[in-house]
């Protein structure tokens, strides 16, 4: 079934200005690892067309995806879209086109597209369903000229079906693999987007996060993930968990690629009320102005050692973070050490914090509304999905995996007293925890290893950026995460970009067993 590992040997594709593939040591352009800026330059110099780039990625998906399973579907119209982008570029040679013009992007399979692609959250229950509109973020991507390359795999239903579901697995997508160490977790639930950009099966990608679903796969697949402030990016047309925490954000190989994608997808959408309030955070001129190599100067960074810097059995991370603290200081940041977040033990325990109680009730309400609004769908409610999984036990591995979270959600009955109390507990924990700490010490960000800070940020709707920070002795990647208050993306981008430029940790995957 699996191609021999020798077929994973790096292959470099070089393109001439006439489109023929050849090797040229002077004008060679390596598409593998190419950033958006590299690609746009190659477009401009007539070294590459969007069609060739799309062909390259389709070829890589064909070659790598049988093992990696980062992609569920490729778009039959992708090459056509690429040709249109090329035609438009030729028609206005000196015109200024958006930076995503002609750039292939992969979307997590929860992000709705009104085209030939299915939107299924990885489940056969939604196969054949038809969405009313493109998701808000997809409409923006199309306007920016991006090529919708396909749908990326995920932990089925964004990991909200069962506590026993394998991470990175979905019935439609199969088991996603970590391209660095195939036996290591890819993490989830936005596993496919992270796997696919890491392995150069696409230029850039979009994932979603309710609690950790961008930050964790970014960490394990050595890519940059931006979890935007809730409401900065529209959730309209995306299979929901809870709009209180759901956010859509980029997973890319570099901070600048992620920022270009962020610039394209943020903004007001009348189909998502939260975007009205959050649009006040969007700076005039967008986010790319914060890609400053000196961005760490005079930044105040908080370090919460307990419980985040527990490196028992992780000597590689311990050493890496010693060096990273040095790098941050040398780049002009002030580290405020040994800080505490009040009630951190409760915040990190979703049952104790109220996050689980609130989310279960919200999931039922929001998923039912999503399913009801579909133009066509085999399932119209969470109850239908549960029945589908029962009826199609073999297809959905229901006997092995179960659906305990779905069943618990179905058993809820709206926002009652228990849920109200959970919601106020969450708000209080956030206000008197992370928010108080950030304000008290006048911090620009807190710095943590990996993704473990995710619940702290999730329950308050706060943003974060994950940047590659190293590889352990087995070759499994780990990240550094910069989290901040709502709307602090400009500062987080300055910090993340400056850290990335100072360290350049990311290297392409080598597909170790
Ligand atoms: C585009 O720019 C080039 C040189 O920069 C110039 O020679 C050419 O005339 C311009 N074409 C158009 C259509 O403006
Ligand atoms: C969407 O699903 C249908 C099956 O319902 C399938 O025939 C079709 O090929 C899928 N679309 C894509 C782009 O894979
Ligand atoms: C640190 O991590 C180890 C291993 O994961 C765990 O056993 C230990 O309890 C942790 N220590 C603290 C102080 O949290
Ligand atoms: C499940 O099976 C039952 C009994 O055959 C049927 O009535 C029902 O429509 C099915 N539901 C779904 C969602 O597949
Ligand atoms: C909010 O949290 C503070 C400190 O953590 C606590 O003293 C207070 O009782 C809490 N208030 C509510 C309404 O839960």
What does this entry look like structurally?
- Residues 53-456 form the Amidase domain.
- This is Amidase domain-containing protein.
- It holds the Pfam family Amidase.
- InterPro entries: Amidase_dom (IPR023631), AS_sf (IPR036928).
- Residues 1-28 form the signal peptide.
- The two termini are 15 Å apart.
- The protein has helices at residues 36-44, 50-68, 78-91, 136-143, 156-159, 191-198, 215-220, 255-265, 274-278, 305-308, 315-330, 344-347, 350-353, 355-373, 382-391, 398-401, 404-410, 417-440, 454-458, 489-503, and strands spanning 71-74, 104-108, 147-152, 169-170, 174-175, 204-209, 224-227, 247-252, 300-303, 334-336, 445-449, 464-471, 477-483.
- The strands form 2 sheets. Strands 1-3-2-6-8-7-12-13-11-9-10 form an 11-stranded mixed beta sheet, sandwiched between helices. It has a two-stranded antiparallel sheet with strand order 4-5.
- By secondary structure, the chain is an alpha/beta fold.
- The protein is globular, with a radius of gyration of 22 Å.
- It contains 20 helices and 13 strands.
- Strand 12 (464-471) and strand 13 (477-483) form a beta hairpin.
- The chain has a single domain (35-513), classed as Amidase signature (AS) enzymes.
- Helix content is 38%, strand content 12%.
- The site of one 2-acetamido-2-deoxy-beta-D-glucopyranose has 4 residues, from loops.
Quick recap:
The protein has 513 residues and is α/β, with parallel strands linked by helices. It has helices at residues 36-44, 50-68, 78-91, 136-143, 156-159, 191-198, 215-220, 255-265, 274-278, 305-308, 315-330, 344-347, 350-353, 355-373, 382-391, 398-401, 404-410, 417-440, 454-458, 489-503, and strands at 71-74, 104-108, 147-152, 169-170, 174-175, 204-209, 224-227, 247-252, 300-303, 334-336, 445-449, 464-471, 477-483. It is built from 20 helices and 13 strands.
